Every structure is written in structure tokens, then in C-alpha cells.
Amino acid sequence: MGDWQIIEGNVTAPRGFKAAGITAGLKPSGAPDLALIYSETEAIAAGVFTTSVVRAACVDYCRQRLQQKAYARAILCNAGQANAGTGDQGWQDALETAQLVAQHLNISPDAVLLASTGVIGQRMKMEAFRAGIPQLVASLSETGGDAASQAIITTDLVTKAIALETTIEGRPVRIGGIAKGSGMIHPNMATMLSFVTCDAAVSTHLWQEMLTRAANKSFNQITVDGDTSTNDSLIALANGQSRTSAITEMNADGEKLEAMLTEVCQYLAKAIARDGEGATCLIEVQVTGAPNDAAARQVAKTIVGSSLVKSAIFGRDPNWGRIAGAAGRAGVPFEQDHLRIKLGDFLMMDGGQPMPYDRQAASDYMRQIAQDSSFPEGGQRRDNPLIIAVDLGNGSGKGSAWGCDLSYDYVKINAEYTT
């Protein structure tokens, strides 16, 4: 833990932010499905979006808005329909939702950012939108973060939220975040949405740079199933209401702010991986000895994304050969005679040679991690990942990636998703 503390409130913990979440009738289940995050003052806005060439209307909308003006006041998110692959009418629907929210907030439509999640190919239910937005705006509250986090989820079993506080210039500075995601999760953004709020003052270019680096160390390092989505969006607002001096360069205050932003993103990213569809445990792959940090992250996410590795972990089979094989095909050069692999405390390979270990004890370790990862009373999984540590040899690069095991339930969930 860095120089900060966990506080209550998630996206409404930073000063000047309100949020709301309601049931507008967008989901057939009748669960909450429409969320709004609102800054009482103009906020610096930054975003990282899906790399897919098949994109939802909300992604193209946000990209255009942020290219024109890196400021915003509101983020509107719906769950139920992805509004991806919906053509010109889907684009017009996105524009109308922004205009409706702007009208009821009495702000410019250009100050509204959008996000959607749900079934690809389905337009948003505009009648429900038109009826729900006045109620949504009226529900905005400084304690509305939990309702918003509930309204953005789809197949998630739990909500994902956090808020941190540090001190800059003797004043408290806060960052809060919520996220959703459980399936269709893979590096270079996934079927995940995350919204981050901050009350620090920071320049537009630096805020975007910080968010991009944080995403590369968090959301771009998780995988559940190898599929990248059409709607992935990470949007961050910073409104300056902490009343600290503007951070315009990477000085000590800038480094502190970015470290806290990265911590928020990593917490939310790991929560998504832990909640992977059908998953029984969180996996953390730690790679050292790589030529550089980017190479280490590449090896780590190749290992954690391997279907064979994920299947072995679900079967509690300490098959380290699959880990070695995934490392070898990651596209990063290293000498196999230097390779070292540990599963928890069990050393399985060293100097490129197999090492004797207690196979049953290693399997029991995997089983215990899964048991500890079950949902306890209160509905949140414990943060107790299964650790795979891989050393490639003599480089200084290091990096981590997170994922989950691959179970029978994953197939069942996705076989029945639209039926």
C-alpha cells in the first residue's frame, strides 16, 4: 500500500461529484440498468477505449468528444444493450441520450460522455431511456456511488468499487472508481467499463498520459477468456475541487497522483479477473528477469491467458510445463537454461531444469486458494490470488498480469447468454 488510505464513497468520494443508479427497464431482469456520474464543475476528462475495429456507438462518440475537448461534466452508462453493430440509428440513439441528459442537467451535450454494455447488435430501448433520464438526474446524490456501481453490471456476481485518499500540499486528494466486467475480458481492453473520479487539479495532457500508463499496468493486464469487446471504456474525470495547485509535470506530486490512480485501476482490474465468469480463483502471474517491463508484462499476460494453464488450475493440476510453454511462445527472447518457475512456495523449475516437489501438496495449495476465493458472508471475494512466479534470467524488467481459471461453468454461462 502506498501513501494513501482506503475510504468510503467510491466515485462520489472526491469532492464535487454525485452519482445515481436506477432501474429504467433496459434489462429484461428488472435489475438496475442506468447510471450517471456528475461533476458539479467542469472536469478534465481522459479515456482509454477498445482496440477493436468493431466498436459501439458510445466508444466512437467519446473518442470524438475527447479529441475535440478534453473536458466533461457527466458520464451516462446503460446496461442491457451494447448499441454495437447497430449502424446509423445506433449513432443517432447515442446522440439523443447525450442530449436528454444534458437538457435535464442544464449543461452542454458536449459535456456528456457515454458508455453502454449488454448484447451486441441490440439498440438501446429509447422509450425507457426517455422516461428514465428525468428520474436518474433527480436521483443524483453524494452517496449515489453504490447505486451507480450496481446499475452498470451484467453477468457480474459482485460490484467493483474503491476510493483512496492521500495528501498533497497539506490538503486531502481523493480518487474513486467503479467497474464492471466478468466475461469477454482480454488484454488491450476487454468487455469492461470503468469510471474514475478525482478531485485533484491536473493538466489535460498529463491526466491522459497518467490514465494510459495506469491502464497498461491494470486493465490491459487482465484476461478471462481471450475475447476483446466492442464497448470497452475507461473514463476518468478530474475536477480540481481539492483546491491544490495544478499538477502539470511529473514532479513528486504527479508521481503520487499517478501511483494512486494506478492502484485504483489495478484494484478494479483484479476485481474483474476475480469475478470472471465461472471462475473459482484469481491468478496472479509475476514475471521478472525480462529485457524490460513491457516484455515482462507480455510474458505474464500470455501465461495467464493460456487456456491450458487456466484449465490445469481449475483441475488443481500443478502442470508447470504448460506455464513454461506459454512463456516460451510469448514473443520475448530469453535463454531457457535460465528459466525459473514457482507455484506459490513450490519451486518447480530452476535453471531450466525440473525440480523435485510435493505434487500433492502443490495441488492442495491450489485447492485451498479456490476455497479461500469463494464468496463469504457479505458477497465479496477475498483477495487471495494463486501466485505463479516466473524468472526469465538476467534482465531488469518486471511485470504482472491477472486472470482466472477456466471452468465448466464458463461454457454454460456463455452458451445461454442470449437465451
From TrEMBL:
Tell me which EC number(s) this protein carries. 2.3.1.35, 2.3.1.1
Q: Give a yes or no for keyword Acyltransferase in this entry.
A: yes
Record keyword Amino-acid biosynthesis present: yes
Site (Cleavage) at A190, T191
Where would you say this protein principally sits, based on its record?
A: cytoplasm
Q: Where along the chain is substrate bound?
A: T154, K180, T191, E277, N414, T419
Q: What CDD domains does the database record attribute to this sequence? A: OAT
User: Where does the protein end up?
Assistant: Cytoplasm
* Catalytic residues (UniProt): T191
List the pathway annotation: Amino-acid biosynthesis; L-arginine biosynthesis; N(2)-acetyl-L-ornithine from L-glutamate: step 1/4; Amino-acid biosynthesis; L-arginine biosynthesis; L-ornithine and N-acetyl-L-glutamate from L-glutamate and N(2)-acetyl-L-ornithine (cyclic): step 1/1
Q: Identify the residue position(s) of the site Involved in the stabilization of negative charge on the oxyanion by the formation of the oxyanion hole.
A: T117, G118
Q: Which domain of life is it from?
A: Bacteria
**Keywords recorded for this protein, A-Z:** Acyltransferase, Amino-acid biosynthesis, Arginine biosynthesis, Autocatalytic cleavage, Cytoplasm, Multifunctional enzyme, Transferase
Q: Which reaction does it catalyse?
A: N(2)-acetyl-L-ornithine + L-glutamate = N-acetyl-L-glutamate + L-ornithine; L-glutamate + acetyl-CoA = N-acetyl-L-glutamate + CoA + H(+)
The UniProt family comment states: Belongs to the ArgJ family.
Function as written in the Swiss-Prot or TrEMBL entry: Catalyzes two activities which are involved in the cyclic version of arginine biosynthesis: the synthesis of N-acetylglutamate from glutamate and acetyl-CoA as the acetyl donor, and of ornithine by transacetylation between N(2)-acetylornithine and glutamate.
Subunit organization: Heterotetramer of two alpha and two beta chains.
This chain belongs to the protein called Arginine biosynthesis bifunctional protein ArgJ
Native species of this protein? Spirulina subsalsa FACHB-351
Q: Which gene encodes it?
A: argJ
